[in-house]
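User: Can you model how NAP sits in this protein?
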Amino acid sequence: MSQATGQPAFGLAGVMGWPVAHSRSPKIHNHWLEKHGVPGAYVLLPVAPGALPVALPGLAALGFRGCNITIPHKVDAMALVHAVDANARRVGAINTVVVQADGSLKGFNNDGFGYIQSLLDREPGWRADAGPITVLGAGGAARAVVLALADRGAKEIRLVNRTFEKADALAKEFGAPIKALPWAERHVALADVALLVNTTSQGMHGQPPLDLALDALPLRALVSDVIYVPLETPLLAAARQRGHATVNGLGMLLHQARPAFQAWFGVLPEVTPELRRIIEATL
Ligand code: NAP
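Assistant: Here's the modeled complex, given as structure tokens:
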């Protein structure tokens, strides 16, 4: 037992999902465990959809410090933990569970933190209030990204989604600075923007490219995509060829893992070029 935490000195964590075999999280966390000399292991936890109500409450009894939650459990898991932190409640989903000292479970969502850090990695002086922001997509990733941008002081967020009603509902739920626009307006919604973000699945491996003309996008705009397979989506390739600075989704994935590792193992790890190379080799 560790005297400080009362937990077993060998730390266990994992990722619950279905399917989960493709997850890069074990490579990320096991790299940090080794690097920081923390005795422990991060494992895959394949949990079928109907099994979550049994699996999640079992974490503490199994001696786990916590786990990540991925598809398809991110929303359902909220109802199965004892407490949900305020940001995760606004996002409406959790991607991290921490076993508290009393054995209870608390849910967090670090995707927005990861996204912002990925921009700061590329441009340390990046500011959310540098100009209008256009976000494409209104799914789970969009909710985390849009809230994080609003919390960082964005003045205007143009939210454009194929299904307008979803963007409109999100804009009404969160209010200013978010404004919903119809999908047909996505090309002109790029005028004057300082940041363009793709949170749709378009451009992901196995999906068609995002249908977007960049002509109206100012050349100073930063272009980011939350997709990381492939690392350079057709959108990012087109933006790079026009001369834009670009940010892929790998930084978001790596940075969202940092606060989780800290909560479980007591060390805030760094995203190093070495870690990036290790994960890029798996993509
Ligand atoms: P989601 O909740 O299913 O949302 C999918 C979004 O894509 C919706 O806005 C959907 O629009 C849009 N979309 C789907 N097909 C489309 C099409 N043919 N044309 C235009 N828009 C289309 O998924 P999600 O969880 O937000 O994930 C979205 C992407 O983010 C995935 O590629 C995922 O891998 C990535 N992601 C990355 C990270 C990271 O750490 N880097 C984290 C989370 C997610 P409708 O509303 O009209 O269906």
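A couple of observations from the model: The first helix runs from residue 25 to 35. The two ends are 38 Å apart (CA to CA).
User: Helpful, thanks.
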